[in-house]
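C-alpha cells for chain A. Residues wanted.
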C-alpha cells in the first residue's frame, strides 16, 4: 500500500495524540466499512458504535467545504479534540 502525505500526516498526529494508546486500534489494510470521499455518507448510529474502520477524506483539506465535512465527521465520531 502506498501512503501519501495525508496518511503520513494523520498517522503522525495520531501517534502524538494523548489518547492514541487508549482509543486507537491498528487494523489491517482492508477496505471494508469505509467512508469514501467519492460517496461521502455514513450512518451516524453505526459511526457511534465504531462500525467504520477508515475514512478516505475529501481533498484538499483547505477547501472550506471539505474542511467543514471533515470537522463534522470528527464531531460525530466524538473525537473533535483532534480539530
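Reply:
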Amino acid at each position: 500500500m502506498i501512503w501519501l502525505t495525508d496518511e503520513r500526516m494523520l498517522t503522525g498526529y495520531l501517534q502524538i495524540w494523548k489518547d492514541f494508546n487508549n482509543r486507537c486500534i491498528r487494523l489491517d489494510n482492508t477496505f471494508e466499512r469505509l467512508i469514501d470521499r467519492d460517496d461521502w455518507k455514513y450512518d451516524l448510529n453505526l459511526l457511534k458504535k465504531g462500525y467504520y474502520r477508515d475514512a478516505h477524506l475529501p481533498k484538499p483539506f483547505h477547501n472550506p467545504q471539505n474542511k467543514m465535512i471533515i470537522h463534522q465527521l470528527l464531531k460525530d465520531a466524538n473525537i473533535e479534540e483532534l480539530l
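Residues 59 and 66 are 7 Å apart (CA to CA). Residues 5-82 form one domain.
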